[in-house]
Amino acid sequence: MTKNKILEVSIDLFSKYGYDGVSIRQIAGEVGIRESSIYNHYPNKQAILNSILNYYVEEMVSDEIPLQQADLNLDRGFDYFYNAGCDAFLSKLEEDRMMKITRLMFIESYHNDEVRNFLKEHIIDAPVAGWIELFNLMKSKGMIQKDCDARQLSESFFYYGMFLLYEHFIVNYPEDDEKFLNDFLEKTKNHAKMIFNSVRVQVV
Amino acid sequence: MTKNKILEVSIDLFSKYGYDGVSIRQIAGEVGIRESSIYNHYPNKQAILNSILNYYVEEMVSDEIPLQQADLNLDRGFDYFYNAGCDAFLSKLEEDRMMKITRLMFIESYHNDEVRNFLKEHIIDAPVAGWIELFNLMKSKGMIQKDCDARQLSESFFYYGMFLLYEHFIVNYPEDDEKFLNDFLEKTKNHAKMIFNSVRVQVV
DNA sequence: GTCTATACCCAGATAGAC
DNA sequence: GTCTATCTGGGTATAGAC
After folding, report:
1. CA-to-C1' distance for A113 and C8, Å?
2. A62: pLDDT strictly greater than 80
3. Which CATH architecture best describes the domain A1-48?
4. Cβ separation of B172 and A120 shorter than 8 Å?
5. Second label for A120, Cα 20 to 30 Å away, from A94, A105, B40, B172?
6. How much is the pTM?
7. DSSP category for residue A200
8. Partner B contacted by A60 (CB < 8 A)
9. What pLDDT was estimated at residue B68?
10. Is the confidence at residue B72, as pLDDT, over 90?
11. How far is CA A138 from the centre of its chain?
12. Does A201 touch chain B if contact means CB atoms closer than 8 Å?
């Protein structure tokens, strides 16, 4: 199906060169048709981008990280939640397409308000809010120190992984995706251990 | 001097809309001359960008953070180094111009190799290498635990601040610069405390 | 659904008068 | 050193034949 091929090619090129860096001609050339034929499938260039972003948003927002039943599983320890959250996120990035669009999101975030808002709300603020809730719960159960700042703790914990993403998708691009995903898990696990170690209540 | 005004206007517009998002016409209009007159001062558009980047690089690389005399000042404690490094960096950002160009660097990093390499080498890798050295020294002096990973420690420490920068310049743009700089100091201080607390040798 | 042909626009850049 | 006028090229998008 031509429409689908246009989408795949667009994802590939946009993620490499950014939206403005790719022309309709270029997409058509890669697909193997003339540029005018593109308009039989999409009304304009922007519609292709919207289609890509909508796909990404739907994939990402479906089954958000389940910190809801936090109080039920709290005895499983911090690692349980860390692994659950990390798995949920990383499993989405296992698709090649999702990796590409993630880079596109980083690229376009500076001048596309929809992208920026999605990044802020769903990729940053919502997870941080979830971790704050969890850390507050852990405070109330005496698992971590009562005087620590749950927001600071969440950000200190979460922003490290966020910068690893930025580093991979922008600063070190292109580098091997699979290797990155493995390193990411390892590194954030170590980081989480360090952060948690700093505030946990010592059991002597 | 017209040449200078062209530079200032370009910094302002590029930092808002990115290099590709600004035309020579737009710059000329803001300066108050015709677009052809631009070429009496700069051979082409790219030369304006290069001029901006060279200025930034020079400013940033001059007096890099002095971790060299680390062993001499080690008894002043971790805070001394943290404050020294942070001050050196933040003092550069106090100029409005440097803030604008920093955003430009983040914007252009995905498709400008020079920008990306500078970001990687001087803004990320060099500081991390400095912190690794310091943490190794602190290990050898018994100030922090011998079995901790100096690189992981450095990244866990440093990447938090890096993401705060990304968040300010891209995700939350535009927000008040001065407020950000104050928050940055406060937040990274708390973060550093947390990280350091996790690995310091307990003095009982 | 794809093609050719083309309209239209705005970009970067140059020539040459003043 | 600035101007008017212009060139050239690439971009998005449309019309209409097949």
Report:
1. 28
2. yes
3. Orthogonal Bundle (1.10)
4. yes
5. A94
6. 0.97
7. B
8. no
9. 60
10. no
11. 25
12. no
